[in-house]
Amino acid sequence: MTETLHIVGGGMAGSEAAWQAASRGLRVVIHEMRPKVATFAHRTGHLAEMVCSNSFRSDDDERNAVGLLHWEMRAAQGLIMEMATRHRLPAGGALAVDRDPFAEAVTERLRSHPLISVSEEEVTELPSSGNWIIATGPLTSGALADSIRAETGAEALAFFDAIAPIVYAESVDMSVAWMQSRYDKGETAEEQTAYMNCPMDKAQYEAFIDALLAAEKTEFHEGETAGYFDGCLPIEVMAERGRETLRFGPMKPVGLTNPHNPVKPYAVVQLRRDNKLGTLYNIVGFQTKMKYGAQTAVFKMIPGLEEASFARLGGIHRNTFLNSPTLLDDQMRLKSRPNIRFAGQITGVEGYVESAAMGLLAGRMAAAELLGETLPPPPPETAMGALITHITGGAEAKTFQPMNVNFGLFPPIDARGGRKGRKDRYKAYTDRAKEAFTAWLS
Q: What top-level class would CATH report for the domain 166-313?
């Protein structure tokens, strides 16, 4: 084997991609600029350093989507999950990790592999030749980010991430909410289900604004500039500019008719379909710096969302990511330069586990290609398959935002034989996924 795979970025995705490719006989060079070039978040030069949490979240592989992803990565002999399990801390049903020993162990395993070498130089532009995986994560260096933007177009790469909360469609009370596009725009059945609408009367709106203003907020982190927010303000900042600001912004009630009540709403919260399956809806314009607990309490004040379940809560933070549905093929290759794959958080997944999972797929796909084979993506019924389907075509390109793994990304379970309770339904998802993933691995 004379081919070499180059991987830019030694985080979760890059580390896992390197391990998977080297395990299949490829020579691998990991290009990691740390510690020579520092970031504001990292403390060491270790590979797979954890910077914002020590948790891999739930380890329940029977009723939790991220726990299922853990199971799939273990089944695929993933390095990240092996080391996370080896260095786990007591955390109930979650997989919490002792950060420094974990990163040290990943680094030692990769550096000691005879087919893997590490180059501590910064890669500043997309390479024109060779076989590459770009796994630089949310803190992609400025020079490389500029090169990616020059290749993909200014609108295809976001340098900051304004995240609106995402709700499971099945948890919205449709006896209160209703489906309608503003001014009845949209002719097809799909377009007519593009928006859910939750009405507020004056008293409900005033109480919502009071709660929004009083809610506990997170502080800005180093690297998050106030200038960014001029173009995309948190809802609480809009509310601070005047109590009616939201009612003339994302909560304007015009062009809508509530079929449940002839009285015109004072304000309307709109939710926009977030995936092609119609299982997830994001709350339009509700990017926020509220803490997670406060978000849940405040958003459940919205009529129709009192019992809402959230696939993701809102936020605004530094996060470089591609508009992957328009740029990447189902092999995670850049369509304009197929010698380059992308992996990890830069592709539009959220979380350590999801990033590592996309690295696992990119490493395996690259290895297969260089060995003269083709590895199809995992089935969409699996956790990995649901993620790669989301980032390479399952999401709406115009509203694409980073996403954690969740059951809303999976094809729905056949409901014949009666509606299952949530626990039974989630177990059905994981049983189906394990069978499909096992078949894909073989």
A: mainly beta
